[in-house]
Amino acid sequence: MSNAENLSAIAVKFNVNIDELARSNALPANYSPEESPVMLTIPGLSLEIPGVYYNVNSNEHLYSIGFRFLASPNLIAGINPSILNANRVYIGQKLRVPAFIHTAGINDTLTDIANLRGIPFTYLARINEDRPGFTYEQLPEGFDVLIPLPSSKGTLITQPVPGTRIGDDVSLTRIQGVASEFEGNFLYRVLDEDNHVLMEGAGTAPWTGNTTFGAFDFPLDLTSPPTTPRGKILIFAYNESSGSLIDLAETRIYF
């Protein structure tokens, strides 16, 4: 958002409701930035591939965008087929980024959300701190907090998002994401807090298009019941020659 625009102009530009736009950013409907650019979340967009998208600003590159969203530049390039050269992105280019949105409830604080999602407070602050409606204290109800998805150089877990509570029928939950290591071959494991193995196996994410990343999607099918109310999902890869761990992404879940 530039200082030549206001929220009404943004709402018209993206064909979204002005009240929802104001609420999701904790801003008055007549807000205009004193400085440019300002990052806003735009609710209610119709997207071909669901997710969070980021418009590139001047003087930005994949390394600065990766730093903001705590993700490898290679991973961001890998989930965006429009990036033909990882050293070159363009002003106004729309990039899919490894993040999701938590809408703040009554009396929510950044600390509450960090504890729920298993994401360090400093990570949440890094993504959100320069947004005009952001505060470190009690967040305005309805404010959209950007949260990084768990990722590594070669893996991104998109579902379930960190802090998801798994229902009684765990098979309704699917583990989804993208992977690149060994042409998409990876291992997975689900643990509770006592490190009991509840599920493990191997999967593939075949390369697609002109990237070296492919999608994976399989059901959460526990072979043992959890003994603690909290656990985690691990997606990882080993070097077949040395046996060393070369890639790991994990996400917190609740049972």
Task: Write a concise synopsis of the structure shown.
The chain is α+β, with helices and mostly antiparallel strands. It has helices at residues 7-14, 18-25, 62-68, 73-78, 110-117, 121-128, 181-184; strands at residues 52-55, 94-97, 99-103, 144-148, 155-159, 164-165, 174-179, 186-192, 197-203, 214-219, 230-238, 245-254. The model has no long low-confidence stretch (mean pLDDT 87).
Question: What are the defining features of this structure?
Answer:
27% strand, five-stranded mixed β-sheet, Immunoglobulin-like, alpha+beta, 2 domains, Membrane-bound Lytic Murein Transglycosylase D, Chain A, single chain, three-stranded antiparallel β-sheet, 255 residues
CATH architecture of the largest domain: Roll
What characterizes the major β-sheet?
5 strands, mixed
**What sort of overall outline do the alpha carbons produce when their principal axes are compared?**
globular
Broad structural category: alpha+beta
CATH topology label of the largest domain: Membrane-bound Lytic Murein Transglycosylase D, Chain A
* Average of the residue pLDDT scores: 87
Which percent bin holds the helix content?
10-25%
Q: What's the alpha carbon Rg, rounded to whole Å?
A: 19 Å
User: What separation lies between the terminal Cα atoms?
Assistant: 40 Å
Specify the number of helices.
7
CATH class of the largest domain: Alpha Beta
